[in-house]
Design brief:
By secondary structure, the chain is mainly alpha-helical. It folds into three domains: 2-127, no CATH class; 166-211 and 250-331, no CATH class; 356-514, Serine Threonine Protein Phosphatase 5, Tetratricopeptide repeat (Alpha Horseshoe), CATH 1.25.40. Helix content is 68%, strand content 6%. It has helices spanning 2-33, 39-68, 73-94, 99-119, 145-173, 181-185, 187-208, 257-283, 294-311, 323-332, 334-348, 361-367, 374-390, 394-408, 417-430, 434-445, 453-466, 470-484, 491-522, and strands at residues 212-218, 221-226, 229-234, 244-249, 316-317, 320-321. The strands form two sheets. Strands 3-2-1-4 form a four-stranded antiparallel beta sheet. A two-stranded antiparallel ribbon has the order 5-6. The longest helix is centred in the first third of the chain and has 32 residues, at 2-33.
Amino acid sequence: MTNRLRKLLGGIFAFEAVCPILVLPAMLVSLWKTPATDGSSFSGGLFMLVFFASVAGIFGAASWTVSTGKRWARGWGIAASVLNVLVALPSLYFGRAPGSLLAVGIGMGAVGITGIVVFSIPSKFTTSTAGGAAYQSAPGDGTNAVLNRLVWLLGAILGVAGMRWWAHWSQVQMLPDQSGWIQTLWVVPVLAVTIVVHELGHAIAARTVDMKISSFVLGPLAWRITDGRWKFKFSMSGPASVGGAIGVVSTRADEPRWYRVWILMAGPIANLILGLIAFSLAMTAKDSYYKGFWGVLADLATINLGVFVVNLIPLRVGGFYSDGANIYQMLSGGYWADHHRVHALTVSTRFTGLRPRDYDLAAVDRLLPNAPSPFYVLFCRLYTYECHLDRGEMARALEALEKAEIASRESEENLTIEICAEFVFSLAYVKRDAIAARNWWRRLETMPPTISPSDYWLAHCALNWIEGDLETANQSWQKGNALAQLLPNAGTYDYDRQWFSFLREAIDQATVSSFVSVAPALSPSM
């Protein structure tokens, strides 16, 4: 949560840096026109110019260091937070400031106090490598590293420009003042509506092409399908804890590429439609019954039209791609289109009837030569192994498993307990290598127990079966199979249940063989 708040504050600092920058040109012109003989006016103007430039510099430096994760981000963050408090004090102290100034003072004071607390806490986020990678472009992803970092500045410029235009327009139209602190609070529900409409656009488009919704996130509020049921969770640590996200999964293996493009475009289009409706209503508010809410409509129009524009720009912010970047990657084909397809099919097996046998091996073969990391190679190898295994192509499955073992040696630091469990089961039951399976089990035991219980018992059962401990294997099978039967009807869970049934046969056969082998030794004493 601390890191997420820091990123949010970094965006606010970018906005605060833009505001004084926008008035600097006018101050320069005013200073230029001030007669040299008017010393007091010239000195005052020069002081204000230097002051505003310094404020912009502090906020800009804080925003840049926080967004890129520089090691001195904490210092600049604290400096910017203290500056917020100092700027807010006059309006808060005198208490008779105009509504708009008082609202600004309250907002800056809240940002300042929050920032002082958040940036005073040591965090790995501020190391030199923490934030930079989240804004770096990858080859062929359609984004630009400089633009990725300047997106906050772009958003701030659009926001300030929109506010200035609406302020001038409302004065000409003689509409009620909408600059008080109560009106300012309307920004929060406006942002919430903007996010909901955007994600609903994605969801509606997904349903039109018969895709399934797997999750819906609005800020810290998250609804996800877990074990076949919708579950709610409140969390400030997720990737969308200050925004929104929706998960959609394919229901067919031969899904056309334009399905994904249509779904990606639908979110910004929904914001465009809402923005145009709000703009039209605001422009006709003067003689209407809702003219007292023209400011809310103006905010709704400005934010939604801004989201439409910015979201269609190919960007990578905070490690996540914008809709525009994903659209570019899908349309450009090549590595990124294959990457999205492989990932989509993998996720779909947890929510639909698709199974590993439905994986696209041709796409994986195209990905491997350009794999960005050893761990990605391991993922592709296991992907290929599971597909061949589920198709009953045992020779090819064993070949892929051996390649996965080789790839795992270069990804030691990234291995998860789920991967270890898969290796234990595969080496024990598929390859029949008890020593290798035991070695992987030792690794598994050193990791936090975050694995699905049924997967754990499947691996434990296979290991004890290959080692000849049939009693323990049978106990593990009983526990794991009971849990597997409770899992929803989806491809990956059907795949697991299938291996439990195969292990049952193997245990029974081993038990019979063991009985037959000891029977002659027992017969003389009978």
